[in-house]
Amino acid sequence: MSGPQSTILWPWVWVGVVVGVLAAGGIAWWLARRRRADRTGGEVLWVANSAYLARLPAFTAWVRRYRLLQGVVAVGLLVGVVGAGAVAARPAQTDVVTDRLGTRDIVLCLDVSGSMLPYDGAVLKVYQELVENFEGERIALSIWNSSSRTVFPLTDDYTLVQEQLQAGVDAVDKDPSDFDWDGSDDAEILEFAQFTAGTTANLAGASLVGDGLANCALQFDEEDTDRSRSIILATDNYVSGEPIYTLEEAADLVSSRDITLNGLYGGTEFYRDTPEETEYRETVEDGGGLYFFADDPSAVQSMVDDVVAQQAVELDATPEVQVTDRPAGWFLVALGGVAVLLVAAWRVRE
Predict the structure, then answer these.
(1) What distance in Å separates the CA atoms of residue 229 and residue 128, rounded to the nearest whole number?
(2) What are phi and psi of 267, to 5 degrees?
(3) Distances from the Cα of 327 to the Cαs of 12, 15, 92, 133, 173, in angstroms?
(4) Is residue 344 classed exposed, middle or buried when 0-12, 13-18 and 19+ CB atoms within 10 A define those classes?
(5) Is residue 46 part of a domain?
(6) In terms of residue numbers, what domain contains 27?
(7) d(Cα 172, Cα 182) in Å, to the nearest integer?
(8) Do 67 and 162 reside in the same domain of the chain?
(9) Are residues 250 and 328 in the same domain?
(10) Fewer CB within a 10 Å sphere, N or C end of the chain?
(11) pTM over 0.90
(12) What percent of the chain is helix, strand and coil (3-state, nearest 5)?
């Protein structure tokens, strides 16, 4: 993007206004002189014994003050006309903007099964921190339990992204087992139900990690374009039921689509080094991704650095000229000139 430049869009209007007003003033002055001459017959009226008046200090001071005020009137008129002409000519600021189209896509993939709910609020806050460090990347959020729901597809509308992530924090950053299902917590129950809606369609299972991950891999579009693609998966890998995809099969699908898989382990520390956690970690690391516990303070920055380090071609968009009218300064000039003109004219009439 080039630097902003100040310009006058219609300079001919400015010249036309100034010339027109000055011409009108000149014609009016000439007509006034002609009318005075017609009234007096073109003759000068001499008054006897009045020559001494021109030597009186009070008279000469009055004449000097009168001529000074006439000069101020002329200056005020000129300044007002110049300012009004400039406003009419559209003073503006122009910027030539060439957008850079970033080609990084990140899908946030969140397990909202019962065992993860105590940790989902913290994971969503990690996601919020990640998004705060991105610029131009497209972000999507998919949540899943026995089935998946796309909260929002790939988008670079970061206002919407943060609003939806915060809605998720508000919905799941509480323990559903503590809800008063008899009516006093209706608002919180509704908030939770709306956010997790569509994630329990398969009643034969829960926390189907492989199916959730496979669905996240299908969130990416524009397969024919050269883009870097990442999934940030958050789960405890505690599966209940028979998924269509195992975790390993889903990871193979991710790899076949040239997607980088990063993992956040969201379960309690008591389950660390269990077979489920070990399988999850090894699957992510074997695919070349990063693996962190959700409460690891280095997780956010490390994942941001990894995403930024990935190949990301930037495509030049068509340059766009942005024009913003900036009349305020010249409007004040015109207003100041008119104010000076009015005050000076009032003094002249006195």
Answers:
(1) 19
(2) -80, 180
(3) 16, 17, 7, 37, 50
(4) buried
(5) no
(6) 5-41+52-96+324-349
(7) 19
(8) no
(9) no
(10) C
(11) no
(12) 50, 20, 30
